[in-house]
Design brief:
This protein is an alpha/beta fold. It is built from 9 helices and 10 strands. It has 2 domains: 162 residues, P-loop containing nucleotide triphosphate hydrolases (Rossmann fold, 3-Layer(aba) Sandwich), CATH 3.40.50.300; 74 residues, no CATH class. It is 32% helix and 23% strand. α7 links the parallel β7 and β8. It is globular and about 45 Å long.
């Protein structure tokens, strides 16, 4: 169990107030450095799966482990190793936070409570902005950026956190075709550079599903297919040139 990045054993989860499980009897093993795509119809349980792995939704039966450790409501230190990008997360134009401060938020889970980011944390945040190509936006309010630029900021925050497990819920949704392509390649770049176990939910074909090592299909809260993907590892240099 300790060698796996993510492991679910016969997991069932039900949202409060519901009778029908959102996930039912899910068993899954994800290796370190594996890229796993997750597909299925709306309401199938794709987002729920990510929430369970991140400890945001308690399970009613079974067991969830990340990096060999059980995921519990008190697993704050474990969640330092998990980065989660929710679906369609965006910011209103009036949001005052500067890009550099949003990216630095990725370090707060690492530094712990009652402490402030130090010079090394700020250096990591700056390096993350440089790597995703938004260093020139560091002093801009995030609410004034385009959807694609905001998504880059959130990916830089992920990069600054230096996690071991990356959970993405439709990271290219609501973007124009050019931005979808760019964000997809940035995700692939981060996945390879940090040697992450990455699980990404998608409802459309694109580079992320094309490059996935495996593709899971979830329907009605059940895992109905776990199929090999193309798994073609894109060289980091090629990804960097694309961006």
């Amino acid at each position: 169990m300790g060698s796996l990045a993510v492991e679910l054993n016969d997991v069932t989860a039900i949202y409060e107030g519901e009778r029908i499980p959102a996930l039912h009897g899910i068993s899954l093993a994800v290796e370190p450095c594996e890229l796993v795509g997750i597909v299925g119809p709306n309401g199938a349980g794709k987002t729920t799966l990510l929430e369970v792995i991140n400890g945001l939704l308690p399970i009613t039966s079974g067991k969830v482990c990340v990096l060999g450790q059980p995921v519990l409501p008190s697993s704050h230190r474990l969640r330092q190793q998990i980065a989660y990008l929710p679906q369609d997360l965006s910011f209103e134009p009036s949001t005052p936070f500067l890009v550099k401060d949003v990216v630095l938020m990725g370090r707060y889970a690492k530094v712990g409570p009652f402490r402030f980011p130090d010079r090394s944390d700020r250096s990591l945040a700056r390096e993350a902005m440089r790597e995703v190509g938004i260093l020139n936006l560091a002093a801009r309010p995030i609410g004034r950026l385009s959807g694609g630029q905001q998504r880059k900021v959130l990916l830089a925050r992920v990069l600054a956190k230096r996690p071991q497990v990356l959970l993405l819920d439709e990271p290219t949704t609501s973007l124009d075709p050019a931005s979808k392509e760019e964000i997809s390649h940035l995700v692939l770049q981060i996945h390879h550079e940090l040697s992450l176990a990455t699980l990404t939910v998608s409802h459309e074909c694109g580079p992320l599903l094309d490059r996935a090592d495996r593709v899971l299909t979830i329907e009605g809260g059940c895992l109905v297919s776990d199929a090999p993907g193309n798994g073609a590892a894109t060289p980091i240099t090629a990804l960097a040139q694309h961006g």
